[in-house]
Design a protein that fits this description.
Elements (H helix, E strand, L loop, with lengths): L6 H8 L1 H13 L3 H12 L2 H18 L9 H17 L22 H8 L5 H14 L2 H12 L4 H8 L3 H18 L1 H4 L4 H11 L2
Helix pairs in contact: 1-2, 3-4, 3-5, 4-5, 5-9, 6-7, 6-12, 8-10, 9-10
Length: about 210
């Protein structure tokens, strides 16, 4: 009986490094823009964000062959990026004491995307993004990560717990505190427009 070999298997046999690179790129490059946005909020500037993403992809590629059982590549990449940020950029992180801001736990929360819609009637969205970046920079690092992963990147609680290497309850606590501090820092935007206006423009106001 004649035996055949699929082209993919042949490529792996003849050029394993090229095949591994192509497979890695196919799986991971779809998350590049999202990872850059995540890194931009973490670092606060485009140069550091580019460097962080590049370092994350290099590290991911270096260890890619060791993680054949990965089921969530996006979470894996974000975990690598988070760890690199903490290790290499931690000293640059700007934080404020929780005691400096009043936290109102019972206030309803709108996500940053909702607030962007609220701001669209009074300000250019670019202005809000600048203010949002400054507000995120002011959050303590662990709270900033929780808000960013949940409300901007859309990870679920379990994924965030895995990325941040902490219990689920800790994620929920950090998210609650981070949201309320962010709301305090961006209070003018939250108060600026009715919920009806936000809902009306939601489909088109958030790029």
């Amino acid at each position: 009986m004649e035996q055949t070999m699929e082209s993919g298997a042949l490529l792996t046999l003849v050029r394993p490094e090229e095949a591994r690179k192509a497979e890695f790129e196919e799986i991971t490059l779809k998350y590049l823009d999202s990872l850059y946005g995540f890194s931009l909020v973490l670092t606060g500037n485009s140069d550091d964000a580019h460097d962080l993403v590049q370092d994350a992809y290099l590290r991911a590629y270096r260890f890619y062959h060791r993680y054949e059982q990965i089921t969530n590549y996006k979470a894996w990449l974000f975990t690598i990026t988070k760890n690199l940020f903490i290790n290499r950029y931690h000293q640059r992180a700007r934080e404020v004491s929780l005691t400096e801001l009043e936290v109102v736990e019972d206030d309803p929360y709108e996500s940053p995307k909702d607030v962007l819609v609220a701001a669209s009637g009074r300000h250019e969205k670019g202005v809000f993004r600048q203010d949002f970046q400054r507000a995120m920079d002011a959050l303590p690092e662990k709270l900033r990560l929780a808000v960013l992963l949940k409300d901007v990147e859309g990870f679920d609680y379990k994924e965030i717990a895995e990325i941040m290497s902490c219990p689920l309850g800790t994620v929920m606590s950090r998210l609650s505190r981070g949201r309320n501090l962010l709301k305090k820092l961006l209070k003018d935007y939250w108060a600026g427009a009715s919920r009806q206006t936000r809902l009306h423009h939601a489909e088109h106001a958030v790029a």
